[in-house]
């Protein structure tokens, strides 16, 4: 029984549920149709099937999550992961089912890295013998693993790790050792308290030579009682901004001996006895996994952004603030006309903050699918010896990981702030999204460092193109490679000017694409000139390289959005283009978002577009009018519909202010009654820390009423 | 005894303490001199005196803070606040001492709002009788108060609050009542569990008329035993992104009667019996407090930014990543030359991220002092009936609150990310700064809404100026008011062009100021034209209004920086200009920062500067060269010195990676050993949730070694 009793009061008029109903009545398209466009039927059916199972399982209950400290979060996550594995085994879930269930529950836990990092490492690097020894028990969760690459002093530069694995011919063993404090394994998910094995990246040293990082699977905790094995010291690295249900861990090895089979040997290995190193085949093969992981992160960016903007948009349709004197809102109720405050979603600043984020979700969705398609195409090509897609894919996946995760982190925080004070409450659901999403800008390649890879490839493509053009090949790959197409167009006429003279001209997608292509090309040309002609150092160009990567990747996002809703993006063999099922109304609504995505991106930071010479100042002002028109007239009526189409059940959002039914204030107050501090009327520390000031002699009848 | 034992290993070479020593040896100025410039001697002496007391008091120990959940944080904060009050009484601290002590301890607690909101409300609004009844017991902490303005459905629009206080002539009482759920008091610091009184903002209703929000001091908890009084329901609103040591609370009144004296009556009051309302004098008087609070927030923005960038800069001088092939770093140790990774502070991207933040701290410092000076000048002026400064001050304090808190929040997060993965660990100290700083962008005026006040005033100034110029007064206030000066200059020549042709031209402060003034004026002119000539609605111009406010306030920051280090800002009567004590070396170093602050602001978002016509694309590129030159040649050697000058003792930073001595990794590992999960070798849930998979039959001797 809570000491805080919920008063039996309604919110003042108008009610949230009525407001959302009005919004939904205005929607010009079928919400289900857009959901299907985004996810496909199979996903939506799977979500409904899994949700029914998950919502009724007590181990997956989210009601305590907002209140839990680290230790409680971890304990609950261990139970959750255990229950999830049991359920998966019982229901014979596919890996897709499992991944989808984890998205619904949305609490990264101690067994998570076993599934997403440890096992994939085994799958790609085990010999047949190692499959029996490591992978099969791992699939049964007898072996629970973690992926121990990062060190206390080494993150992005994997080549710099310091842990050693020295081959000892006499015993046919490796000695794993931590030579320095900076070589401590650190940040390793699941290592802190849970894993009994680790895939350790260590420098292979054999026959007196250092061959750099290789993977070794080593036992770290006893299979009998989970105590640490002699020679291994490990623990949890402590609390973090988020991800506190996961036991990120640290580990030291003290001349720890493991048998030769510990080295994952599918690609490279050691000859027993001599310790001779047998080289891996084409190193490029390993890029493929990175591309896949990074393409996946675009999807993650989409999902978390979509959650945040669903909450912020629904709440902004309900939250009212001030009366807009130019167009006051009136409410008719019981024959009375009363002026009420304006929903914040009607203010153009709120629209400028939120609507481009809605548009970004659709942009991320289309580019995420396209990157996955290219990944599989590349895998197929590489299998037949064709590596032509790899460099481009590696480059764009690096830049897109950087851009899209940076966008998502900024957009989540913007959504949180757009909810005013309530965005600061855990009950809004937004702090959790913010905290747990934050590491995406750092892991799988820091967002600044990654852009160097994109830059290098773009500059190489440009130099190759210039050579080919010098040799008279003016149309090299213009029709098949969009990067080369915009570089060619730029080289054809570096002084190209936009011809727009009125607002409606900016709704032309070809014009938008030309602006992004010209801008990107102008930056690339300038950097290559600085590097090759002015002989500037690479370090001095890093800020420009970052900007080049952003410009190129914005081009990709805009292009995939434009082509995707037209049904002009290639589809994987045998797949129907999801755009083919769109009704004209849906296509029109998506076109509005595509226009807003492109034009808002320019309007917010027009500098480089102006510097490229394509746009002039008057055009940027006109384009601003187009942004305003799109927001106020086209997107405003559909805003709630657009976020409803993201199809998040309330169970996922776990938000007082973003639930489907709009009962913002009722749900919020109800959550507050469950705050642990509210379970006693008088707080624990009162006697010791408050009463000595307020009633030092412990007088009875010492009330304010008596004083007055 | 921790189950995680600290290995006796040093980090690999070079050591953090040696690296910081090298950095400090390179510093071209006296660190103490810059500290004194920023804070003055009195502040630094007070800090040393208070720190000696505070560091040895167990209630102020910070070592557990990184690990504590909400309930522990709150319990510790209650103890901390109790101890702090006792210490203040015992040491006879001044209010300045108390405030400074709170900055050192840096944990907003349950008694905080009593001091910073409740008591100031009493001071400014109590009659003499109320001083006796409320203020004096409050000064002794018998009354512990909170300030109950915000409601569940009402934040920024104070006029819209719904709680009522109806005067009942029969009993000479007010009836405080919560008519709707949305009228619940919400977010009220200290109300949740601690306060026994509240200053409640409620709509005064008397003699059948609604006079809008007024302040009432009402008892809410029993002075005898701290239970809630009949008619009042209150509790804690639950966990938040940060500020979890404070009991932000909620409250409902059920026809709660209080005597007439509860209404704070210095400015407006009720005649007993008739209930006649007696009007307040000039309402403008109350603006003064807002200006003061907002000026204070600029100082808060400075302090938190400075903490974050101290941590990030020191760590970036120690953290090494990759080898810069164009200029590899070598280490001489024991007659050996070895190539080591490059400190990340040497990379231009890291410089572009961090150095402008260092510069921003100095910019905020100078503008904060200037706003405080203007506040006191205005108070003095108003006392003699001169309100001439008020509107300008209200406008610039609104815009500066918006701009500087937005900058600070972004800069803190940038510092966190610039520390890579370790910025995500609580032990870096950065997540705490981020979480606790976040509400600054929302409270005391939402950062978007506030800019409308700045815009309104700027547009009014511009219209007045145009009228005066039309009447032939071309030089109105040009020499005394910087806003009118730049507007006049623009109107003299809207087509003014920057004459810079080489990098060094951009180091001219007059040129920088002209760029910011011209840009701001061009936006103001355009908006006023849209509003007055094109008759555009205010709502349709809000995004532009926001940009105008940012542009104007960036001008103020740049101007105060330039004038402040030259010793050209006016000083309060009798005060010595802190710039007068600067040596040439310090002045030169500060000039580098001032240049970087101005030029980086343009370089990062050049769009509006280009659109204003003052700068062209070639000049923006040249200006980029100036930014690079400043970063690599001028600021890099002084970076650690600049942040050392912020004079934060390690006790304030509470950071493993940002401490003065550079022992990053040793301190980090030591903190991890104290993680609660590490106190047992085998985690609590093992038997129930892990062993069923890994050793289901509980076999003895079931080890991996046996399997191999």
From TrEMBL, chains A, B:
Protein name, entry field: Acyl-coenzyme A oxidase
PANTHER family: ELECTRON TRANSPORT OXIDOREDUCTASE, PEROXISOMAL ACYL-COENZYME A OXIDASE 1
Originating species: Modicella reniformis
Reaction equations catalysed: a 2,3-saturated acyl-CoA + O2 = a (2E)-enoyl-CoA + H2O2
Binding-site positions, FAD: 150, 189
Pfam families in alphabetical order: ACOX, ACOX_C_alpha1, Acyl-CoA_dh_M, Acyl-CoA_ox_N
Domain called Acyl-CoA oxidase/dehydrogenase middle: residue spans: 146-254
Stretches assigned to the Acyl-CoA oxidase C-terminal domain: 508-694
């Amino acid at each position: 029984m809570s000491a805080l009793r919920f008063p039996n009061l309604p919110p003042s008029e108008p009610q949230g549920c009525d407001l959302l109903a009005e919004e939904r009545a205005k929607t010009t398209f079928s919400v289900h149709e857009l959901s299907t466009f985004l996810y496909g039927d199979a996903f939506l059916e799977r979500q409904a099937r899994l949700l029914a199972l998950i919502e009724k399982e007590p181990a997956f209950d989210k009601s305590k999550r907002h209140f839990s400290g680290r230790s409680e979060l971890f304990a609950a996550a261990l139970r959750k992961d255990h229950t999830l594995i049991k359920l998966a085994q019982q229901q014979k879930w596919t890996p897709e089912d499992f991944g989808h269930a984890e998205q619904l529950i949305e609490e990264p836990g101690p067994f998570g890295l076993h599934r997403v990092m440890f096992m994939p490492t085994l799958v790609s690097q085990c010999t047949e013998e190692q499959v029996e020894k490591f992978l099969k028990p791992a699939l049964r969760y007898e072996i629970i693993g973690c992926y121990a690459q990062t060190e206390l002093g080494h993150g992005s530069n994997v080549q710099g790790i310091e842990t050693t694995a020295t081959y000892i011919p006499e015993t046919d063993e490796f000695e794993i050792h931590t030579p320095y404090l900076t070589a401590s394994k650190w940040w390793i998910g699941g290592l802190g308290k849970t894993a009994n094995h680790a895939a350790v990246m260590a420098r292979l040293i054999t026959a007196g030579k250092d061959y750099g990082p290789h993977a070794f699977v080593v036992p770290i905790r006893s299979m009998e009682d989970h105590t640490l094995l002699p020679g291994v010291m490990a623990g949890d690295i402590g609390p973090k901004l988020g991800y506190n249900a996961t036991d990120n861990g640290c580990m030291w090895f003290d001349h720890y001996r493991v048998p030769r089979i510990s080295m994952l040997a599918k690609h490279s290995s050691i000859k027993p006895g001599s310790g001779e190193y047998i080289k891996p085949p084409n190193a490029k093969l390993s890029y493929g996994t990175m591309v896949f992981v990074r393409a996946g992160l675009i999807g993650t960016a989409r999902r978390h952004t979509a959650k945040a903007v669903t909450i912020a948009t629904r709440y902004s349709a309900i939250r009212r603030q001030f009366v807009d004197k130019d167009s006051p809102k009136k409410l008719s109720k019981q024959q009375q006309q009363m002026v009420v405050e304006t929903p914040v979603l009607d203010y153009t600043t709120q629209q400028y903050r939120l609507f481009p984020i809605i548009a970004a979700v659709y942009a991320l969705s289309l580019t995420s699918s396209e990157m996955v398609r290219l990944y599989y195409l590349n895998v197929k090509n590489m299998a037949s010896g064709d590596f032509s897609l790899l460099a481009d894919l590696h480059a764009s996946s690096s830049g897109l990981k950087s851009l899209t995760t940076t966008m998502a982190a900024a957009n989540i925080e913007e959504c949180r702030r757009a909810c005013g004070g309530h965005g600061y409450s855990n009950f809004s659901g937004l702090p959790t999204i913010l905290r747990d999403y934050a590491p995406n800008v750092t892991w799988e390649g820091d967002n600044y460092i990654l852009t160097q890879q994109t830059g290098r490839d773009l500059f190489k493509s440009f130099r190759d193109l210039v050579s080919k053009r010098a040799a008279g090949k003016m149309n090299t790959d213009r029709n098949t490679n969009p990067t080369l197409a915009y570089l060619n167009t730029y080289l054809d006429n570096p002084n190209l000017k936009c011809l727009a003279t009125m607002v409606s001209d900016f709704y032309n997608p070809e014009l938008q694409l030309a602006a992004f292509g010209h801008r990107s090309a102008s930056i690339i040309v300038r950097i290559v000139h600085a590097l090759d002609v002015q002989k500037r150092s690479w370090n001095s160009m890093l800020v420009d390289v970052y900007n080049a990567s952003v410009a190129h990747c914005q081009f990709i996002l805009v292009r995939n959005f434009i082509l995707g809703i037209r049904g002009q993006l290639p589809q994987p063999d045998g797949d129907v283009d999801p755009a083919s099922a769109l009704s004209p109304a849906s296509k029109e609504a998506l076109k509005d978002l595509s226009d807003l995505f492109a034009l808002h991106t320019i309007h917010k930071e027009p500098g480089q577009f102006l510097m490229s010479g394509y746009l002039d100042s008057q055009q940027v002002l006109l384009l601003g009018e187009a942004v305003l028109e799109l927001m106020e007239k086209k997107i405003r009526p559909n805003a709630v519909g657009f976020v409803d189409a993201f199809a998040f059940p309330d169970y996922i959002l776990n938000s007082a202010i973003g639930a489907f039914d709009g009962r913002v204030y009722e749900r919020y107050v109800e959550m507050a009654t469950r705050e642990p501090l509210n379970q006693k009327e008088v707080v624990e520390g009162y006697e010791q820390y408050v009463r000595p000031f307020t009633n030092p002699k412990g007088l009875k009848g010492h009330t304010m009423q008596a004083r007055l």
